[in-house]
Amino acid sequence: MTFVLEGDAAPQVLIPQLIALYEAGRFPFDKLIKRYAFEDINQAFEDSENGATLKPVDTF
């Protein structure tokens, strides 16, 4: 299933819902990201493309 989240959502409603899901252990967003040093940006792109991470986050 593919969908866009937040495209047509009301942030005042959606954000508290996502927080509630996280607190209930049903939305582990912290496990969906992987942090990369900026100098590893190419690895971040590669990992995103091959599915090694869902959301790469580059840090400066």
Outline:
The chain is an alpha+beta fold and 60 residues long. It has helices at residues 11-23, 41-50, and strands spanning 33-37, 55-59.
What does this structure look like?
This protein has 60 residues and is α+β, with helices and mostly antiparallel strands. It has a domain at 28-60. It contains two helices and two strands. It has helices at residues 11-23, 41-50, and strands at 33-37, 55-59. It has a two-stranded parallel ribbon. α2 links the parallel β1 (33-37) and β2. The model has no long low-confidence stretch (mean pLDDT 87).
Ordered list of secondary-structure elements with their pairings:
Blueprint: H1 11-23, E1 33-37, H2 41-50, E2 55-59
Parallel strand pairs: 1-2
How many helical stretches?
A: 2
Order of neighbouring strands in the sheet with most strands: 1-2
Report the principal-axis shape. Answer: elongated
Helical residue percent?
25-40%
Low-confidence stretches: none
Structural class: alpha+beta
Q: Gyration radius, to the nearest Å?
A: 14 Å
Number of strands: 2
User: What is the H/E string?
Assistant: HEHE
- Give the termini distance in whole angstroms: 33 Å
Biggest sheet descriptor: 2 strands, parallel
Output the keywords.
single chain, 60 residues, alpha+beta, two-stranded parallel sheet, 2 helices, 2 strands
